[in-house]
Amino acid sequence: MRENGSTTILVLAVVVILTIASSWAFLFLQYNTKYIAESMRDDEEKRLLIQEAERLVDLLKQDETPHANSVSEKLMLENSEDVTIRVKIEDVSSRLNLNWIIGEELKESGFLIQGVSYFDFQAFRYENGFLTDFSCYTDFVQEEDLARYFSPYNYFNVNICAELVLEELYVNRTDDREGAEIFRNDIREVREQNKPGLSNNIEPDMIHSFLGDDNYMLLYPVVNAQPVMNVHFIPTAILVNLFRYFKVPDPESKADNLIHLREISELSIENLTQMLGKRQYTQSRLHHFIGTITWFWEIEIIKTLENDNFIGLRWIIARIPNTENSEQIIYRLVKEEYFK
Amino acid sequence: MNITAKEKFSSAKKILNNNDGFTFVELMITLVITSLLIIGISQGLISGTRIIEKATMYTNSTTTFLEMDDLVREMVGRVYVPFWYSEIPVEENSDYLEIPFYEGEKDSFLTISFNNSYLHIGLKDLSGDGAGSISENENEYQSKIIRSFHAFSKITIEPAVNSEQEIFGVSLSVYPMDESNPPFAIVAPFGSNPLYSAD
Hints:
By secondary structure, chain A is an alpha/beta fold. Chain A contains 13 helices and eight strands.
């Protein structure tokens, strides 16, 4: 009778196979359950971030002074009771915009690199279209100036945009080249009526009648007549350059005054008219550059997690300019981004 | 009566040295006990394997779904349509969707397609030197699949729209192969949306 250990080897092989299979199943289950748990945790964290962002948007909507957004309002919103949550709110529309600025005005602002022609800038813009990232404009504007003084997030004010830009925007939104040319001609006609020191502006209450019902439906709110930047958040260099361009007397000290005042109080259009002068502010196009409302806010919420990790949400929200029938403050989400 | 250790040892020795076979009854009892043990163990093994198989399948399908959900949301979330557009020019049929503005680039497309029980998530953009330029020539575009998921009996892919019929993302209805499992839906919003007319 055979008495060697063949049976033991067979048993060992079975045990090894079973061990491998059960280990694989265990690891697989462990990976899957870990993934499911992480995914659920991430979802919960994202839900909390969205909840916080929505709370801030609600606070912005409940503004008791809807015609101005001040520095103190921003600071108040950045206060969070939850120590694990850090909130940052930034006005991203109070900058110049390379998508619409008139070439000559870019030159006059001092931001166009010395020796570069503004015609080349306009040709480059026409070739590349409207952009959300201005990093390809470094041949025309210094890189650090691009980050500090320019933003793609503000509206196309019909009074201060380049004519060709408005025509291209019309094509972009309607695919109607013929209609775009007519629209451009209408704008040119209005601008041809400008007199030295007295601009023929299309004011917010005239925008509907100027555009007509059809164009209003097609272009509003992206094309409107609201002042694009908020005086409370405009960088000093832009403020001084605009004052110089629109011949505000003593531009540096006026800018200093405004910067001091905006830190301690909420400025109104009346304040600006008083400080800058009716002729220089309301009768020129300056009041289409500088106003008191922020149109695009960036809300950044960072939640600290265990082990120094964090999860963040970045929203860009746009305030919709009021229509004739409504005074209600409406914000719409235009960009959402999560980061870790 | 006390049994001494010596007596115990001698009795055990007797049993060990006993050359008699088992009786028929002893053998039957042994067989029955062994059979019961084998049946018990094998039943345990079979049901254990089934449980592991079910748990693995369940967690696997849940993980597949979650991975798919995560990836679709992440990729669709990287579609940044500039706010000045009036609509999003998506190309679609029931099992294919092509969306421009992936990473904000007009000529970079996110593609989602369903083919032969597979869901493919991919990218299509201008190749080589043509990148960044505007071209109507389809041949200049290069497509690549980022990831595929399987196996599904049917998936419908369509733009997600809000109550005003404005597109804000992508909606998938996924039907698992096993028809006893209910279909599930994924609604993934774009990272950036146009400012539609505010009426």
